[in-house]
Amino acid sequence: MVPLALLAIAYLQTPTTSSLTICIDPGHPSEVGRGTTGKKISEIKVAWEVAQKLERILLGKHVRVVLTKKSEMEFVRNADRSRIANDCHANLFIRLHCDSSAGTGYATYYPDRQGTVNGFTGPEPSLLAQVGPIAKRFHKELSKNLGNYLKDNGLKSDIETAVGSKQGALTGSIYSHVPVVLLEMCVLTNRKDEEKVSSQSGQMRIAQAIADAALKSLTDE
Predict the structure, then answer these.
(1) What is the pTM of this model?
(2) Across all residues in the chain, what is the average pLDDT?
């Protein structure tokens, strides 16, 4: 039998949902533009609507939730989005986006090295060491929960993005002082992907998968 004292220590070391803060960042509009659009729906709208659903799911699990925007069309610079996550001491900063390419499916991005933008270099090495394992657990659980609903394009470094390849990391990652992942939820220019993310049921499925992935990444060492 495990001594009660050891059980108490294990309990204190394992985060509970009520002790967590998750910052949700519905992508765009920002200094880099309004994002992509499909034939029926915009990236701004998809990110905002999924963020609203994700917020409700997390609040239902007693997680503290902070959004980087107060309304769908609010303009927020990427540095300010990170500042909001930093100021609330988020356990995880989730950035929601949609891709535009000839492909299909979703992918998770995270910083695995420092980058520099406007003379500022980040994230700190200690954060890089922390975010890698979190991102791996996040994407593993996301893939498990989404199954074959959307194509899994894997877990990738920020350096594999157009902006990250120039800066070393995405701007939101560079300014972040908390663990950060960016999720390209779909390829919005793909007709089948757009159909799924423009439906309420599809958005709910994605939001639930993100919520489960976020909690798993933070509570399962």
Answers:
(1) 0.92
(2) 93
